[in-house]
Each structure stands twice: as C-alpha cells, then as structure tokens.
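Lay summary. Proteins are chains of building blocks that fold into shapes, and those shapes determine what they do. In this project we predict the shape from the chain. Here is one chain we studied, written as its sequence of building blocks.
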Amino acid sequence: MKEINPADLERSQVYKLLTGSIVPRAIAWVSSMSADGTRNLAPFSYFTAVSANPPLVLFCPGTRGTDGGNKDTYHNVKATGEFVINFVNAANAEAMNITATELPAAVDEFEYAGLTPILSKHVNVPRVQESPIHFECKLHQIVDAGDGHIVIGEVLYMHFDEAVFKEGNYIDVAALQPIARLAGPNYAHLSDFFQLNRAPSEVK
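And here is the predicted shape, written in a compact code that computers can read:
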C-alpha cells in the first residue's frame, strides 16, 4: 500500500492524485457575464448537487494554472450574482474542451468555440443552445476554500431537451450521452449502466 502525506507534495502533485482518484466527475459548463456584458463560458468538474429544497448546486473554480489568479467565471459570478450551468455530452465535448483554454477576460468563449448563445428566462446570462440541459442559477454563497472557491447557486429555472426528458421528471441517461471528467486529458463515455436496488429503511 503506497502511503502519501499531501503536505509533502507540491500542489500540482496533490491535484493529480485528487483528480485521478475522484472519478468519474460530472462537468458544469458554466456560462457567466462580466459587469460590462462580456460573455464567458468555462467547464468545471468539481461540480455536484447540494440540496433539493431549495435546489442548490455547487461548482468550484480554482485558480489559473498560469499565474495563480482567480478565474474569470469567479469574478463574473461575484460581480453579477448570476450564472447558467450547461450540461456536457458526447455531442458538445469538443466545444467544451475549446472553452477550457485560458483566454484573456475580453474574449467571448461563445464566439471562440463557435457556440450559439440563447436567452435565459430569469437571469441575464445566456445559455448554450448546443447543450441538452440548462440550469439558470442565482448566487447563493461563495466560500473561500484553499486555492479556490466553492460557488453555491440556487437553481431558478431548468431547461431540458425533449430527447432527454421523460415523463415523471426523469432523465433518459442513454439519450443524454453524458461524458465524465477523469484526469489529465482523459474523459469517459457513460453508457454501461446497471441497477442496484436499495433495501427499504429499517429505521422505525
């Protein structure tokens, strides 16, 4: 058994062990807008649901690898209090990867990646038309955490492509064709599904 104390490693080495072990991870493709109206789009794989009532989700923008500064998404959400989580699948994976490029704040990633911005209903931030699911969010809380931030948002409105939405409020995962983040340049197609039925509660 290999034993490692994270305190003995450089940040980059700890990051490799974390992202290589915590797999697969869903990808939040976060669209945001600066105070002056510049659109931004970037993927984050530190992403999960927090609560259903109220509906809360979180993603974690770390610092830039080049200069250690905060990412544009963090600055935008902090300034405007709004963002949209667009979901990544096999069809838009290449475009998502393009938007992962570190670019100057003035660059519009929608244009850079050839994506189509569409209006949201409750926030001023555009959605990605090429994504099958969108969550419009308002900022609930930002928590400073180590070399990054935990951004918690309340989901105000949801959009689902009819191809992935099933009656009874279920998502057709096979139709969604989700991809997951692994480590380094590696991703995974999720297609080999199986079921485990949970035993009923024994709490009286």
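What the prediction tells us: The chain has one domain: 18-189.
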